[in-house]
Structure formats: C-alpha cells, structure tokens
Amino acid sequence: MSQICGGIFTSHVPGIGNAIAKGLQQDPYWKPFFDGFAPVHKFLAEEKPDVAVVFYNDHGLNFFLDKMPTFAIGAAPEYKHEDEGWGIAFERPYPGHPDLSWHIIEQVVASEFDPVTCQSMLVDHAVAVPFELCWPGSDAFPVKLVPIAINTVQHPLPSPKRCHELGKAVGRAIESWGGEEKVVVFGTGGLSHQLEGERAGHINTDYDKFCLSNLAPDPEALLQHDTLDIVELAGSQGVEILNWIAARGALGGKVRELASNYHVPISNTAAATVLLENSEKVLA
Length: 284
Ligand code: DHB
Ligand code: FE
Description:
alpha/beta, Protocatechuate 4,5-dioxygenase, Chain B, 8-stranded mixed β-sheet, 10 strands, globular, binds 3,4-dihydroxybenzoic acid, binds fe (iii) ion
C-alpha cells in the first residue's frame, strides 16, 4: 500500500527560478528565502519519496482564459516546462506516473469530482520552481509527478471547502493505491500577493500568519473565508492558498510541522515554505 510521507508548501514566484538560474541563493535578497529549504532537503534525503502529487495553478502555459478547467489532473508519461515569456525553460523533464494518475482520477470521480484529464500537459513555474527548489542541480528528478491544477485565475473559482474536499479525496485515492510508492504532496503558490490593479503590491501579514499557524493543527479554520473573502484579504493572486488548502486535505488528520519559513517580500509576494510530516494514514 502506498503511503503519504508529508507535505511541502511553498511559494512559486518565477523570480525564484531566475535567481536559481543565476546562482543567487546566497545573495542577501534571496538567502532568507532559500535558507528555508534546508529542512526540506534533509526531509527529502531521508524519506526519498517516489512520487510527488502537486496541487498548483496554471498561469497560462497549459490552460488559458479560453479554456479553463476548475480542476485538471495530469495522466501523461512525461511533463515539460516551457518558456512562459520570462526567458527560462527548465530543461529537466518531469517523469509521470500514468497508472497512479488514472487511479486518482477514477477515485476522485467516484467521490463526485469531475476533473479534466490531461494525457499531455505542460507544467508552468508553479510546478517547475518548487521542483528546482526541492531538487537543485542537474540530476534527473528522483520522483514521478502527478500534477493537479486548480483554477485560481479566472472567476468563478472553486471554494476553499471544495478544494479541501478534493484534497481529501486525492489523499484517500493515494492510500488505496496498490503500489508501494512513498508519496509527498505539494501545495504551491501564495502567500498574500496581488500583481495588478490599484492594489498591486498588496500584502497581508496578519492573514498569512493566520494561515501559517492554522495549516497544520486546524486547516478547517482556513475554510471560514470564502474565495472572494480570500481575494480581499490576500490579494487576487493570494487566492493561490487554495492549492495549499487542497494539499493539506490530502495529508489527512494528524501532521507534525517540521519547518516553517516566512519572508516578505520576494518579488511582489509574501513568500513562505512549510514542511509537514504525516503522522497517520489518511482516513475517510
Ligand atoms: C509572482 C508571484 C506569483 O505567484 C506568480 O505566479 C507570478 C509572479 C511575483 O510575486 O512576482
Ligand atoms: Fe502564482
């Protein structure tokens, strides 16, 4: 039976990818953010997960405003990143796990979710940057990817409750998979940020700290705000916390926080990295 060993939650700002490409990890601007990954590297070296199930949002590389699924699950043998217009295409491919993807799709459909299924799919900075952060260097990625895209871009967006329930359904699906793989779950994006309009640059440290302090012990506290409340609180892109809410749902009941890092700003974003260890199996 497969097992979820933990969850990695991180911002996915494209500028982080640029800093990696330029080797700026020790630069005073970037160091406080990159230092937050030391415990993540230790965790991954010890746990050696086989699969990463990644809840993220696509910003226009694979889906655009003309076709925007609320939930989409990749079932491709391999995924690639491409230049999104900021001049970097990360070269390392992301091996897929189509059998596990289809198992997750079947199980979440049985749980009455209706995802779009993608047998070919590009993944944007919301997957590429977290992967570069977690597995730096040029070696092939040691995990297989199951990407799960949530629409946090074009309204109407799904509710926090719906995303949490999707995450729980994915967690149950992973636990019921017959393989022996060890799975790590990712939630990417956030925390508070708004890139456009009159409130460009908006950051809300109070709301971010509320999310960070409740994520492990009481994730349902994050469901008290609806999606539009979150846009108001955290900014129009701060609503990427929906990806974190889904990933936390997949981890199930008891988790232990191994590390938490919060640094403002990275680019226009309040950046955060959280590492949670799963201390029990996911139950219905
Ligand atoms: C930034 C943050 C994001 O989440 C994103 O997708 C793009 C840009 C930023 O802060 O620059
Ligand atoms: Fe984003």
